[in-house]
Write a structure and sequence with these properties.
This protein has helices at 5-10, 14-20, 31-44, 71-77, 92-104, 122-127, 129-138, 142-157, 170-178, 195-202, 218-228, 272-276, 292-297, 300-306, 320-331, and strands at 25-28, 50-52, 62-63, 66-69, 82-85, 185-189, 210-214, 234-237, 240-241, 246-251, 259-260, 265-270, 283-286, 309-313, 336-341, 350-355. The chain is α/β, with parallel strands linked by helices and 356 residues long. Helix 11 links the parallel strand 7 and strand 8. The mean pLDDT is 95.
């Protein structure tokens, strides 16, 4: 499929479809995702006819003024209805359940942002089409181009069937794109509990030159220390990453969603350039809950001087899929750009790999 304006303009947006349907619209799931979707429903004048949850979460309680019901109860009430999931998952059994529901009733899964309030919007995307086309033309292989087209198609329509055909395993990127050696200096931004360091080690036969890992959440950081304490030549920083060294507020959740925000505890932020102080690194992973742009800005000297391999999360903000590849190309036009989508509904595991 060629990358064309007419193709994307022909796609019906998820919100248009939900607004024009005559079928009842029910939300699957609760929590922050549900609240975001209900806010969009109010904005577009879409009626919510109910909320249901997986059976194990139904306890006769209410959410957002709706009694939380079972899927079977919704099926008994309506002959047909549209299901709008309000959560993200990479669990195979939950993903299979979503696919099964999509085989029984129309399922629309809006691209709700992980960070921030800006949602992906078809008209806004079309207004940025020249930038998106530039990203497509920069992509280095056919798989990357398929990922870009399919993820954008999903983001417009909310149709998860676009995603499964472009799922690949992380191992594919390690072996075919990154091709890490046994003398790497790895900078892990968003180390969580050390799982991504351990993933890195699994692809270097446990050998490396140096590891530098940053994790801002204190509970996660303690787990990170416990999991990595036996490693040699490793520096662990309990701080957030930013474009410069300064104090900022951080809201932690003891999970993967801790982020810099307008409220929370004062937290030390560091830039990659400050930590490295001109020393070489060979691979940087950016997964910093919406602060990827600022983290890259704090790595400018390192990127320009050493051209390390890069991995950037492209799914935290609505247009990261377009903005971050363009940013990397502006910094260093010599980078080859690869895009991969890991198994996840919605598209919350889209990653950009940059190599010379």
């Amino acid at each position: 499929m060629m990358f064309g304006y007419d193709y994307f303009a022909s796609l019906e947006s998820c919100w248009e479809r939900l607004r024009s349907t005559s079928l009842p619209v029910v939300i699957y799931g609760m929590g922050d995702g549900c609240n975001k979707i209900l806010a969009k429903f109010q904005e577009y004048g879409i009626k919510c006819s109910g909320i249901f949850a997986s059976d194990e979460f139904v306890r006769g309680h209410s959410f957002a003024g709706f009694k939380v019901r079972r899927y079977s109860e919704i099926q008994q009430e309506y002959d047909d209805f549209i299901v709008v999931p309000a959560f993200g998952t990479s669990l195979p059994d939950v993903m299979s359940r979503l696919e099964a529901i999509a085989g029984e009733h129309p399922l629309i899964m809006p691209d709700t942002p992980v960070i921030g309030e800006e949602h992906f919007d078809k008209d806004e995307f079309l207004s940025r089409f020249s930038q998106a086309e530039a990203v497509y033309n920069h992509l280095a292989d056919e798989q990357s181009k398929k990922v870009f087209i399919n993820v954008l198609s999903y983001k417009i329509t909310g149709d998860i069937s676009y995603l499964k055909p472009v799922f690949t395993l992380p191992e594919e990127a390690y072996y075919n794109i990154l091709r890490l050696g046994e003398n790497e200096t790895y900078v892990d931004l968003g180390a969580y509990t050390g799982d991504t360091v351990q993933e890195f080690l699994s692809h270097t036969n446990g050998r490396y030159k140096k590891i530098i890992a940053l994790e801002p959440d204190k509970k996660n950081f303690r787990k990170c220390i416990a999991n990595l304490i036996e490693l040699d030549n490793i520096e662990l920083y309990n701080c957030a990453v930013w474009e410069c060294d300064e104090l900022k507020t951080f809201s932690g959740s003891s999970g993967r969603q801790g982020k810099l925000s307008d409220s929370g505890k004062l937290t030390q932020c560091r830039s990659v350039d400050s930590i490295l102080s001109g020393n070489k690194c060979t691979y940087i992973k950016y997964d910093v809950e919406g602060a990827e742009k600022e983290a890259v800005a704090g790595s400018l000297d390192t990127i320009k001087k050493h051209s390390p391999k890069l991995c950037l999360a492209l799914y935290h903000r609505a247009y990261d899929l377009i903005n971050l590849p363009m940013l990397i190309k502006e910094i260093n036009p010599d980078y080859k750009l690869f895009m991969r989508q890991y198994s996840y509904y919605p598209a919350w595991e889209t990653n950009l790999f940059c190599v010379i």
